[in-house]
Specification:
single chain; mainly beta; Neuraminidase; 4-stranded antiparallel sheet; 25 strands
């Protein structure tokens, strides 16, 4: 394991075995793409300098693509890191994907080109245009296992997602978002093979989960499903959580259809102890157990990074944690670490940072 670099705000303790601080700052906290090239290397876009605090610094700030090997200083990546960092980029299974602008020597015309391959060995590939019929949801997930879009015309009109090797589908039906607010009847989620065979109705309603928050993980080859948005209207999910003392997470093994229901008990992490308005939940399943972060909009003091163990919840970090991403081996979590409310203020020099932690014991 590389020597940990202390962030000054994250302590190495019983749960966190090592900490690496990239020193990279980003304004784009929500939905930030943090990708694991392998278990030791992260690809991410971030500002090319410290946090801007003046109008001039904001005007001149650029977002660059960085390659960060844990234990080393992140380095700008690509012939033009700014173009690569502001357009679509991804990394998975040892390969990067990013855009570059290429200028024709004869005409001077510039064209956007897509490049893919291992570091230093990227080649130009065909760039897709538009959304293909039957294209699968690209999950907003804590682990990005594949950079390719997936299209299956047989699934046109359905909301579905797939595992990293496209062997199995989870079919959420036509209107799971409307089902979640009671506007249309709920349907069971269907697990099936990619060819449409071996269909199994799971004991999970499409009204109970957010399709875009479905997680597939290569380290244990299972899906994790949950409703990642806790709202007070039009259905008061806070009251449901309080009454049931359970915010459900389902763990589905696609090979056997075995479905396990896990529960986050009701507590301060719900964001409802002071009235609640909306809370987002992000999962980080690992070999060392299930971690999750919550981001309550009206109860900032209840945000944090938590561990669920044997039905009990413990807070690992009281700071904001967003955009979590788990390494392929299931031992490391990278995320945007926001130490306090001052870091969210544009005029404050207090900065967020992209951080990685190890949660596995040395013998794993």
């Amino acid at each position: 394991m590389a020597t940990p670099q202390s962030t000054g705000t994250l302590a190495v303790g019983e749960t966190i075995r090592a900490v690496w601080d990239s020193g990279l700052y980003t304004e784009r906290h929500a939905g930030l793409g943090i990708y694991w090239l392998d278990d030791n290397t992260i690809v991410v876009s971030a500002d090319n300098g410290p946090k801007p605090v003046t109008a001039e610094q904001f005007r001149t700030a650029e977002t660059w693509l960085y390659l960060w090997r844990l234990g080393e200083k992140p380095r700008p990546y690509g012939p033009n890191p700014h173009v690569a960092g502001t357009n679509y980029h991804c990394a998975a299974r040892g390969e990067l994907t990013y855009y570059q602008n290429v200028v024709d020597r004869n005409t001077g015309a510039s064209s956007r080109t897509l490049w893919r391959g291992p570091p230093g060995g990227e080649r130009e590939v065909a760039s897709r245009k538009g959304r293909a019929p039957g294209e699968a949801i690209r999950p907003i997930t804590v682990e990005r296992t594949n950079c390719e879009f997936h299209s299956d015309p047989a699934m046109t009109g359905r909301l579905y997602t797939t595992d990293a090797d496209h062997q199995f589908y989870l079919d959420f039906g036509k209107d799971p978002l409307l089902a979640r607010v009671g506007a249309v009847p709920a349907e069971p989620i269907i697990l099936m093979r990619a060819d449409g065979s071996a269909r199994v109705e799971l004991p999970i309603s499409n009204a109970s989960v957010s399709p875009g928050a479905t997680h597939f993980h290569t380290f244990d080859s299972v899906f994790y499903l949950l409703n990642s948005n806790v709202l007070a209207s039009p259905i008061n999910f806070f009251e449901t959580w309080r009454n049931n003392d359970c915010w459900p997470i389902w763990r589905v093994d696609p090979r056997t259809a075995k479905t396990e229901r896990l529960c986050i008990p009701f507590g301060p992490w719900s964001g409802a102890m002071h009235g609640g308005g909306a809370t987002s939940i992000a999962l980080a399943p690992t070999r060392a157990g299930l971690f999750f972060s919550t981001y309550p909009l009206k109860a900032q003091e209840e945000h944090g990074f938590y561990q669920l163990r044997d039905g009990s919840v413990s807070r690992i970090l009281s700071s904001y944690v967003t955009s979590s991403s788990v390494s392929p081996n299931g031992c490391r979590i990278a995320f945007v670490h926001i130490p306090n409310d001052d870091a969210l203020r544009a005029d404050s020099p207090v900065s967020s940072s992209i951080v990685a932690i190890d949660v596995c014991s040395p013998d794993i």
